[in-house]
Specification:
It is elongated, with a radius of gyration of 24 Å. About 70% of the residues lie in helices and about 5% in strands. Strand 1 and strand 2 form a beta hairpin. Strands 1-2 form a two-stranded antiparallel ribbon. The chain contains 5 helices and 2 strands; from the N terminus they run ααββααα. The protein has a single domain, classed as Multidrug-efflux Transporter Regulator, Chain: A, Domain 2 (Orthogonal Bundle), CATH 1.10.1660. With about 130 residues, the chain is mainly alpha-helical. Helix 3 packs across helix 5.
Amino acid sequence: MAFESNKSYYSIGEVSKIAGVPAYLLRYWEGFFTELSPGRDTRGNRRYTNKDIALVLTIKELIYEKGYKLGKATDMVRRSVSDHESDEKTSEIIRLQKQMNRERKNHLLSQQRRRDVLEEIKVEVEEMLQMLG
C-alpha cells in the first residue's frame, strides 16, 4: 500500500496497512525487537516515524519472506540496526518523501500561476466592459 510520505508520523493503523501486518502483531513485535519502539503522543498513541516503518518492513521481510524465527530475526535486527540495509530503506522513504514534496510544490506553483493569469484576464475584461459602456 502506498502512503503519504509527506507525513512525519504515522498511527499504528496506518503502519499496519503500509506493512500489510495486523496492528496486534506490531505491538507484539515491540516486545521482541527493542529497536522497534515508536514514540507516543500526548494521548499515549504510538507515533511511527519513517525509520520505524523501515524497521517494520525489515522485520516482516526476515520473518515472512526469509522464514527466520523470532529469536534469530531479533538477533539479526540488533546487528543490522547500524547496518546499511535499514539505512537504505530509510533513505528510500526519505527520497520518496522529498520527491512527493517537490511534485506538490510544483503543482501548487502551477495552480498559482493559473490563478494569476485568470485574475489578469478578469481585470482586462472588466476594463473593456467599462470602456464599452
